[in-house]
Specification:
The protein is mainly alpha-helical and 494 residues long. It is 71% helix and 1% strand. It has one domain. It has a two-stranded antiparallel sheet with strand order 1-2.
Length: 494
């Protein structure tokens, strides 16, 4: 409590508040632009913090991290162009709501859910860091493999029309992720001696292609003049109602907790958190059929889970020196540049600075909420822009985003090719979101599976070697078969 009191003046000074506001605005812009990630945003601003007070520098980086995680949902909802890979799940229902003229409601729900998820993770960071950090030491290769498989179970929920097509799309995504260097043996796979493939296909370029470029092709093939099904110039753009908020408070809390716990685990990341939160929300929803067709519950779960990762990923970094994900690994540079070393001594030798980061994250999250809600109605007007104007703008952003990943024209070609693939998949009901889940989670599952077998000398019993493994296996079976069990109970009841 002593350090919290010392941190309050550092966080609530006019200078620190202006830095928080600046970080939030920059973070939202970075997150909403395809190709620019939270990792890139934090990395770009680390040098700028060198001349700041340590507390101000960490507050700026924390604000950018939190706001950019939320910012990806804006373009995902409005034009089905996830600003970051973490917003892929949000795009599933968010864009459908935009087409129904409910873009303002989806954006405001995303804002509030991101705020709640962020606050939950910040509170955990503030009060439970040492306790939750112990979870990290309990997760080894078999636990991480099963966790990634648990994240992939959402494919079953997404595959409404055909589970076979959903699984095929997911498998295709996993196959594409194998291109490049084998993470275990170091050998090249499926590169065909093409130098650009040695490092693998760019995940960001593929995501932009499958979701964004394909959307341009989709708009061009439709006869509608705007994204909305029926555009009325006199239609009011509303924000989410109190009724919908009241229905989703527990959804936000549950998803925020899931995101925080997933964020603590090194390598798990926002994609797993978003997928698990979405799946949990769908399985307990009274309106599961709306998921994938335009559900505020789906947007709420995905975004609360995403931002729950932010504080969670900093817990192992600050307490044990173990980054929870790529962003927190870059964040480590921000600590080092100010002479701060992660570990227990960080909370004692530099207590005021450390707790100023915790409180600063909470302040930045609240500022993000205000900015997001004020801007929601204006952002939503994108859905009323004529498609013959919007299409070229989206494609321009796609090209810039794909190129900016590594300043590579090869990524532009990759984006176009997968844009055509994504368009074809959507036309044939092959679930592009399932493909991206396989692409993102596949490498985690593969590497941890093979690492587990190396540790056990080929024995599959390692996947049942701990209570955590057993619990994850039970959860996987439950999430796979729950939709069918639920249908049976509903039929018997009727």
């Amino acid at each position: 409590m002593e350090y919290i009191m010392e941190a309050i003046p550092l966080v609530f000074s006019p200078q620190a508040l202006m830095i928080s506001l600046f970080g939030v605005v920059v973070g939202i812009l970075i997150g909403s632009l395809p190709g620019l990630s939270s990792t890139m945003g934090v990395a770009l601003f680390i040098p700028i913090t060198y001349g700041m007070r340590p507390s101000d520098g960490l507050i700026l980086l924390g604000a950018i991290y939190m706001a950019s995680t939320y910012g990806g949902s804006i373009s995902a909802i409005l034009i089905k162009t996830p600003g970051t890979p973490s917003a892929v799940i949000t795009a599933i229902d968010g864009y459908e709501l935009t087409k129904q003229g409910k873009g303002g409601e989806a954006l405001s729900m995303s804002t509030i859910a991101s705020t709640v998820g962020g606050i939950i993770s910040c509170v955990a960071l503030l009060f439970l860091s040492p306790l939750l950090a112990k979870l990290v030491t309990s997760f080894g290769a078999p636990e991480m493999f099963l966790l990634s498989i648990l994240g992939l179970t959402i494919i079953v929920g997404l595959s409404k029309k055909s589970i076979v097509k959903g699984l095929l799309a997911g498998i295709l995504g996993m196959l594409v992720s194998t291109v490049g260097i084998d993470s275990i043996t170091g050998e090249y796979r499926y590169t065909f001696e093409i130098v650009e493939l040695f490092g693998g296909l760019s995940t960001v370029a593929i995501v932009i292609g499958v979701f964004s470029a394909s959307q341009v092709f989709n708009l061009a093939s439709q006869k509608r003049s705007t994204i909305q099904y029926e555009y009325d110039a006199n239609q009011k753009l509303n924000i989410v109602s109190k009724k919908d908020l009241n229905k989703n408070w527990f959804n936000m809390f549950r998803s925020g907790v899931i995101g925080t716990l997933i964020g603590i685990l090194p390598g798990a990341g926002v994609s797993i958190a978003s997928a698990l939160s979405y799946n949990a929300a769908k399985n307990v929803s009274k309106e599961p059929d709306l998921f994938g067709e335009g559900s505020l519950e789906g947007v709420c779960a995905s975004e609360a889970g995403n931002n729950g990762v932010v504080g969670g990923s900093l817990i192992p970094l600050l307490t044990l020196g173990i980054p929870g994900n790529a962003v927190s690994a870059v964040f480590l540079g921000g600590l080092i540049i100010h002479g701060l070393r992660p570990g227990p001594q960080l909370f004692t030798d530099h207590g005021a600075i450390t707790y100023s980061l915790f409180l600063g994250l909470i302040v930045a999250t609240l500022i993000m909420c205000v900015v997001g809600l004020v801007a929601a109605k204006y952002f939503a007007k994108v859905s009323t822009v004529p498609t013959n104007v919007l299409g070229p703008i989206i494609m321009t952003l796609c090209v810039i985003g794909a190129y900016s990943v590594a300043n590579s024209t090869f990524n532009i070609y990759t984006m176009f090719i997968f844009g055509l693939i994504g368009f074809g998949m959507a036309e044939l009901d092959y679930f592009p979101a399932a493909f991206i889940l396989g692409l993102v989670l596949g490498p985690i599952a593969e590497s941890e599976f093979r690492r587990s077998l190396l540790l056990s000398k080929g024995s599959y019993s390692i996947f049942l070697s701990s209570p955590i493994c057993i619990g994850l296996v039970i959860s996987i079976v439950f999430f796979v078969f729950y939709p069918y069990i639920k249908d049976i109970f509903v039929k018997n009841r009727n």
